[in-house]
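Hi there,

I know you've been waiting on this one. I reran it after we fixed the sequence typo, so this is the corrected version. Both the input and the resulting structure follow.
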Amino acid sequence: MTSGELSDQDYLREIERLAGRVRAAASDEGWLSYLEDPQDSTPLQRSVNALARALRHYHFSGDGCLEEDRPPVRLVGATVLKPGIMPAGVEETYEEVCARIGVDPRPEGWALWNTWSDGDLKVTMVVAAVETTEGLFANWARGRPVDPVTPLPSQVALIRHGWIGPVTLAPRGVSRTGLGGLPLA
């Protein structure tokens, strides 16, 4: 399909999608900067950095834009558990799920991050980063493949072997697992 066949709105969405891919490629190469451009930046790098700063992006604490010293956690998916608000398909109460997982209930809730250990074992991190997880969901809902930065040690309650579900799959999590939208087993 050529750009002439797209509506104005679809054209803008396609441009934003392609700009996002440029931003992701620069990030993967390790030179993307949301801060002031480094002295040794090339004109192309400065232009891509400016493009990345201008792209619509829902920023949240832990999105990696400012926490340059913490590497990202590559997520398969995530879940938020809160008192009175449980994910679809969960029959247990918040308190029951907390007891099963092995954490004390907190009024703010918990986030479950499904990822891999250094040895490629499936693990679930139980983290206090509920707002970060909600920021991830806001981006994932718009198809933006965002991963959070590694949580601070004080944010990690525990790490369990295996993935705990149900989860909202990360856009890149689908390709990383090969699930193609199928539920996690």
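Quick highlight: The beta strands are 77-81, 110-116, 122-127, 156-161, 168-169.

Best,
R. S.
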